[in-house]
Amino acid sequence: MASSSGKSFLGRFGVHIAVLVFVAIWTIPTLGILVSSLRDKDQLIVSGWWTALSTSSQTEAGRLPGASAQIEKDGKFVIEGNIFGDGPARNISAFGTKAQQPTQYEAGAVADLGEGVSLQLNADGSFVMQSPKAFEGDRGQRVYYASSAPPRFTTDNYRTVLFSEGIGRSFINSLTVTIPATIIPILIAAYAAYALAWMRFPGRALLIAVIIGLLVVPLQMSLIPLLKLYNGVGLFFGVPAKTYLGIWLAHTGFGLPFAIYLLRSYIAGLPREIMESARIDGASDFEIFVKIVLPLSFPVLASFAIFQFLWVWNDLLVAMVFLGSGSDQLVLTGKLNALLGSRGGDWEILTTSAFVTIIVPLIVFFSLQRYFVRGLLAGSVKGG
Amino acid sequence: MTAQILSAIFTIIIGVGGCVVYYWGANKILDTVFPSRGVSGAAAVDNLRRQGLIRPWLFVGPAMLIVTVYLVYPVIETLRLSFMDRGGENFVGLANYSWALGDREFRSSIFNNLLWLAVVPAACTFFGLIIAVLTDKIWWGNIAKSLVFLPLAISFVGASVIWKFVYEYRAEGQTQIGILNAAVQYLGGTPQVWISTPFWNNFFLMVILIWIQTGFAMVILSSALRGIPEETIEAAVIDGANPFQIFWKIMVPQIWGTIAVVWTTITILVLKVFDIVLTMTNGQWNSQVLANLMFDWMFRGGGDFGRGAAIAVIIMLAVVPIMIWNIRQANREGGGGH
Asked: Transmembrane region positions (chain B) (predicted)?
């Protein structure tokens, strides 16, 4: 018995460790861009984001001012100043004048450069260089130094991407696409689902079969004909081919089979007695639908709404085909894709933009996780 | 900016309002044209019958119209276009398909898609199942599940940026800012350019989809595991089964149907994977897949609709059988509402 309890303790400990490893792998990448988006962009490119909290140190080279900056003092020629100029302050730990020995002297020490020339470089970057003879030449003394900077966090990156990189504009474009493209299919699907569940009319069974059949159609099958159709309509009526109305309808079309499938199975399961007693009281189908079916179907409507919202917000393919690439129509995913091409190495821009694009889904996800999971369980067969 | 926000709000109100007005208005008109209240008995019955004939079509009409325009017509048209030339004007028979079979890029896409199919659904289901079982046993299991589930809310493009940062490469000896290369360098290895090393880069792209979809597998499988009757497990414990035997011989067989649904759902997703490849490599370094190739041909050199349509048809031929099986299976599992 003792050995079995010992084994189960070890086993339980192992379970905790294993889950911890999985959670780490699944969260660290996202944490990386969140931390990076808040870091100073100069620190971001020289050190890993996991070192963000520690003081970053680096060895750099600088050049002191040339002979024109010298002043004569007590018979000596002196050049004074601060090696960081007006830049952010850092802490110098050591310095040197030879590339082979960049940290030859402690900060604050006086280095003898020969021929009576001396250089003192202090921890705060201020320096004094003295010589018995006048300095010559425009190029000043080369200095190497090891400096450390305290961790700096800033929201500057967010200000930059939101207001000068166009992410703010794309954010609004994304909302403009997503909100109607979520509400419209819910309305249309709910009416259709009610009719398919509770109203009698010829061809009902066939319609249900067609809807389920359309669940299997991949999105790719629709793109080319719709692109041609949109261009044709645009040309014929002399209107732009790429409009918000166009993409709302496209997302509605692609989302409808799943929406009807999901909503119909739920609405068909509502208790018959409620409908019948309402009908006896003289309520029309329209009134029954609005006053009874819609409120009772709230959970499934919420599930579908979250699905559709996330799917439209995160969509790139449909937006690339049906919307233009101008700043008035480029959605967040498209903008992020464009930035990957144009700002490939600027990680402060990319990480911040990425975080802006994922923050809305994350909020929706965390606040409405219950409905999201319920939708997943009910409709794991989403086509798209 | 304000003008954009105002016009966005305006377009949203118009779009959503239009829908509301249609349903309310159409219904109102029907009630006015065939009134059932305030008319004599016989006429009221007559009008009620007429209403009953028309109203269902008012309700399903918009859905039918949109589905016809956006799904039914395009499927037929894409099938037709796949036998036409690049502009969709002249019939070319099977030329697009025979071109595809001979095209190096197409063959490489098929190969890569098969690779994705072999790895991603299996990995997602495997990790999802393991995490579902393990998190069931600990007090902070729900928090752990939420965190693993979280990437499911992130777009493929966002996830691509996240992982591109993980894979970021700097020359050997420099400070690595990508965590993978930093780890490799820390362990004494040589940093690699992960996403442009042919063949292996496929796996680094797959990691992204696995990272996103494992949460999906985990949630579905976790709920299936909860449905396993306690007695079967207790009986196994009494019979002296060890945890591995309980897992493989008692739990897995009972949720086999759900595992199959998860597996096929992810399989379908993999066949349509597009965004990840587009944003990470755009098919360079032999990482092309069918969906991205299709998108490419839609616009390449002004667009070749014939070839694009042929690739779309091939994707559909691959998806449809799996999808049909998946829906059947899901219905049998009682997938329509837990």
From this structure: 6-25, 57-76, 114-135, 147-166, 203-225, 246-271, 305-325
For B84, list phi and psi in degrees, rounded to 5.
-115, 170
B60 vs A207, A313, A351: nearest CB: A207
Residue of B nearest to A311 (CA): B155
pLDDT digits (tens, 9 = 90+) for B292-333: 999 888 887 778 888 999 999 999 888 888 888 877 777 776
In whole angstroms, give the CA distance from residue A81 to residue A90: 15
ipTM, two decimals, is 0.87
Helix A244-267 / helix A369-378 crossing angle, nearest 10 deg: 70
B267-296 average pLDDT score: 88
CB-CB under 8 Å, B278 with A362: no
Partner residue facing B8 (CB), from A19, A175, A269 = A175
Identity of the residue in B146, B211, B271 whose CB atom sits nearest the CB atom of A369: B146
What's the pLDDT tens digit per position in B40-87?
778 888 888 888 888 888 889 899 999 999 999 999 999 999 998 888
Distances (CA, A) of A60 to A64, A95, A147, A179: 13, 9, 8, 51
Which chain A residues are closer than 8 Å to B320 by Cβ?
216
Chain B contact set for A337 (CB, 8 A): 157, 278-279
DSSP states of A328-380: TT--HHHHHHHHHHHSTT-HHHHHHHHHHHHHHHHHHHHHSHHHHHHHHHH-T
Query: What pLDDT, in 10s, does the model give residues A341-368?
Result: 888 778 888 999 999 999 999 998 888 8
Q: Compute chain B's Rg from CA coordinates.
A: 27
Domains in chain B: boundaries: 2-81, 96-156+198-332
Q: Does B63 touch chain A (CB under 8 A)?
A: yes
**Residue B67 at interface with chain A, using a CB cutoff of 8 Å:** yes
Is some CB atom of chain A closer than 8 A to the CB atom of B154?
A: yes
B81, A215: Cβ pair inside 8 Å? no
